[in-house]
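Q: What structure does this chain adopt?
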Amino acid sequence: MRIDLHIHTSPRSACSYIDPLELIKEAQRLNLDGICLTEHQVLWDSGDVEKLAREGGIKIFRGNEFTTNQGDILVFGLYKDIKELLMIQELREKVKSAGGFMIAAHPFRGFKTFGIGQLQMTVEHACKRKVLEFVDAVEVGNGKLSPDENDMARKVSEKLDLPGTGGSDAHRVDDVGKWLTVFEKEIQNELELVQELHAGRFTAVKKS
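A:
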C-alpha cells in the first residue's frame, strides 16, 4: 500500500499552497493508495477528513508535525491540538501514553549548508543527535531534501536500527508523491496505520 506520509495543505499550514481538493486529484493521478495530512501544529477534524476522503475516493489519514526543542517530529496516533513549542521529552510522554508513533522529520536538513559537510560529518557523529533518542523512526526520504541529506538520514537509521519512512513534505501539488512509504498490509483506518508503523512493516521508496 503506497502512502505519502508527509503533506501540508492550505490554509491549515500557512506555508503550503496546496488546496485539499487539488491534492486529492493529484494523489489519484499518481495512483496513491493513501495520503497523510500532517499540518504544522494543526490537527484536522475527523469529520472533515472523512468527507474529503468520500469525495475523493482515497484513504486519508491524520497526523501532525510538531515543532520541538530538538526539531520537527511527525506524529501519528496523538489526536490533540497543541500549538506551543514542546520539549521533546514532553512530546514523547504524550505520544507514548496515547500509543502513538514519532518520526524524526528531515533530521539532517541543511547539514551541509551550515558547514558541517566541510567538517566531514560522520554517521557516528550524526547518530548522537538527541532527537534520535526519543523517536520510533527516521524520515529517510523527504521530497524537499537533497540526496546527500536523505542519504545521511538513511545511514543513521540503519546504524541505530530505526525504521525509515518516506514522505514528500509537499507544500505544492507537484511535490506530492516524490517519496512514499510502502506498507506490506492494507490499511483501512488511522488505528491500523499506527499499528503497522509500530510493526515496522514498511519501506521508504522514491518516486521512479
